[in-house]
């Protein structure tokens, strides 16, 4: 669920996974794993970094 939302928000902003990785400080592989559902558990700190990279609030992932 969160992975799909990350992908949706990223695509709405026209960002590639590489660009989001650079903006957030989270590895592209982590973003890929989250978006594809390989990783279902995400640490709050990682989610917060992605939110900052996307310029959204954490609640926007829900």
Automatic annotation (TrEMBL):
Indicate whether Transmembrane appears among the record's keywords: no
Domain of life, source organism: Bacteria
One GO cellular-component annotation of the UniProt record comes to: cytosol
State which residue ranges cross the membrane. Answer: none
- PROSITE patterns registered for this protein in UniProt: HTH_CROC1 (PS50943)
Q: List where this protein forms a coiled coil.
A: none
Q: Name one Pfam family in it.
A: HTH_3
Q: Which residues form the HTH cro/C1-type domain?
A: 6-61
* Keywords carried by this UniProt record: DNA-binding, Transcription, Transcription regulation
List, in alphabetical order, the Gene Ontology terms for molecular function in this entry: DNA binding; DNA-binding transcription factor activity
Known SUPFAM superfamilies for this protein? lambda repressor-like DNA-binding domains (SSF47413)
Q: What is this protein called?
A: Helix-turn-helix domain-containing protein
């Amino acid at each position: 669920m969160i992975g799909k939302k990350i992908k949706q928000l990223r695509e709405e902003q026209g960002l590639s996974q590489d660009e989001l990785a650079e903006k957030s400080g989270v590895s592209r592989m982590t973003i890929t794993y989250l978006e594809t559902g390989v990783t279902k558990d995400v640490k709050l700190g990682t989610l917060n970094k992605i939110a900052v990279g996307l310029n959204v609030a954490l609640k926007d992932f829900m």
